[in-house]
Amino acid sequence: MATRRSGGRSARHAARAAQSDVSKPFLERRLPPVEVLDEGGLSQIEENAETILSEIGIAFQDFPVALEMWRSAGAEVEGDLVKFPRGLCRQLVQETAPASFTQHARNPSRSVQIGGNNTVFSPNYGSPFVTDLDDGRRYATLKDFENVVKLTYQLPHLHHSGGTVVEPVDVPVNKRHLDMVYSHLKYSDKPLMGSVTAPQRAADSIELCRLAFGGDLEEKTVLTNLINASSPLRWDSTMLGAAKVYAENNQACIISPFILAGAMSPVTVAGLAAQALAEALSGMAFCQLVRPGAPVIFGTFASSMSMATGAPTFGTPEGGLAIYVMAALARRVGVPFRSGGMLTASKGPDAQAAYESLSTLLPTMQAGVHFVLHAAGWVEGGLALSYEKLLLDADQLGMMAVYADGVDMTPNGQAMEAFRTNPHGAHFLGNGHTLENFEDAFYRSTLADSNSYEQWSEEGELSAAQRANSAWKQMLNDYQAPPLDERADHEMCAYVEKRKAEEPDEIG
Fold first, then answer.
1. Which residue of 36, 126, 269, 476 has the fewest CB atoms within a 10 Å radius of its CB?
2. Residue 8: its pLDDT value, please?
3. What is the mean pLDDT of the chain?
4. Given the DSSP bridges, would you call strands 337-338 and 312-313 parallel, antiparallel or unpaired?
């Protein structure tokens, strides 16, 4: 016991913190997915989606190449509108799209398996603002972007570096993708996402990765990329162009309808699900037409809305039900699924944020989502990233890793020896089994305060957000960059400089 307690509380905390840096590159779920619809219900939604595809159609706007590909595949094309023979899109996806795939990281030990019984957590995406307890809400800068990448790199339960973790608005619109992709490759060695705001920006993302990885990427998927439908029932040329570039180069596309129910879909869960399935099938099938076997992820982002104000709402029961239903539909298609996260409309890391975020995260885990974007940091309906919430959310993700591992039914888990060796009426604190499992028996939060009121008061009566504020500052102070080949770094910097010089700045 003397060696276990030596060094005091601070030393034990430091040891646990050091141990937390060692984590699996992705989460392996042992809990079966929760089903909220039976075979009849799921089949009906699939039938409704096929009716949408065949009778109502999907618009492929301003992208003639896609229209010609669909015409050749047997679809009916009228202007920009494509109507698909029943079952065509599903057939194209099921025949060639992989059920799971590896996204390779710059550090091979951090490569992730997307699909199967695995879950990958990725941070916030797309926010033009950041907020923290010190400086409040403000436009995000490239420095903020780099900070979030550095923090994500150090957070063991965020498996993925993400993509546009915040929008660096101090960099021209047409050039910021270069700085973002470079920052991911420079300051982290976790997997990353590429740019989707133009086909050329997708090509730039691939080229920077080719330089960082040191070779041809033809047979190596190193990027996942968020391709959003322009719901309802429409794909635009920007998303189609980016998807085509990535699919041609064997990089993964998250084909993800972005739906605010009541505005971009019917208000009902079943109606939303049918629409999302139709949109996702058409997008994934397009990728297979571009390159059979190109990795795709069936995605959906579904939120309800306030019928009084029109504002998006999160953590609602309808949103949770949609995640369960869409995850089941994705399993029936046979491809990985993206949804969920830690979503909230709250403006900071308060009680509303905690309730809404966890009400989204639990369905995410119980539904068996494979790729979780917005897993940490999201506030204000996605308009902002909170530095404090980034760390608080990541702490919850650590809890989910334990939750998803299920119940330990090994001999140690059954603990029968503890019963045999423990006297009747005596506590188990000194039992050999307890001592052997002491360090890892329960998840230990790095930010929650479980001390007595007196201890908490003596240490400054800090809120969870205040503790997180100190923690992220310390993490940035302690940050050490992962190794990066000097030649590769030089080549990436030269490429960024060259591409920035080739076109004038676009502002706004």
1. 476
2. 41
3. 94
4. unpaired
Helical (H) or strand (E) element with 257: strand 252-260
Residue 355: exposure state from Cβ atoms within 10 A (0-12, 13-18, ≥19): middle
Are the CB atoms for 462 and 182 separated by under 8 Å?
Answer: no
Q: Which of 244, 159, 246 is nearest to 209 (CA)?
A: 246
Distance separating the N- and C-terminal Cα atoms of the chain = 63
The C-alpha atoms of residue 89 and residue 41 are separated, in whole angstroms, by 20
The CATH number given to 92-404 is: 3.20.20.480
Residue 65, burial from CB neighbour count under 10 angstroms (0-12, 13-18, 19+): middle
Strand, coil or helix: what is 503? coil
328 membership: H or E segment, kind and range: helix 317-333
DSSP type of residue 265: B
Q: Is the pTM of this model over 0.85?
A: yes
Q: What is the pLDDT of residues 177-204, one digit of tens each?
A: 999 999 999 999 999 999 999 999 999 9
Answer for the pair 132, 144: CB distance below 8 angstroms, yes or no. no
Q: What is 51-114 written as a DSSP string? A: HIIIII-EEETT-HHHHHHHHHHT-EEETTEEE--TTHHHHHHHHHS-SEEEE--SSGGG-EEE
Distances (CA, A) of 321 to 258, 272, 310, 315, 354: 16, 11, 20, 11, 19
Amino acid at 275: Q
Q: What is the CA radius of gyration of the chain?
A: 24
Which pair of structure tokens corresponds to residue 425?
Answer: 């009426």
3-state secondary structure of 301: strand
φ/ψ bin of 249: left (φ > 0), alpha (ψ from -120 to 50), beta (otherwise): alpha
What is the residue type of 203?
A: A
Nearest to 139 by CA among 179, 186, 171: 171
Residue recorded with tokens 């939060």: 445
Domain ranges of the chain: 92-404
Per-residue pLDDT reduced to its tens digit, 243-280: 999 999 999 999 999 998 999 999 999 999 999 999 99
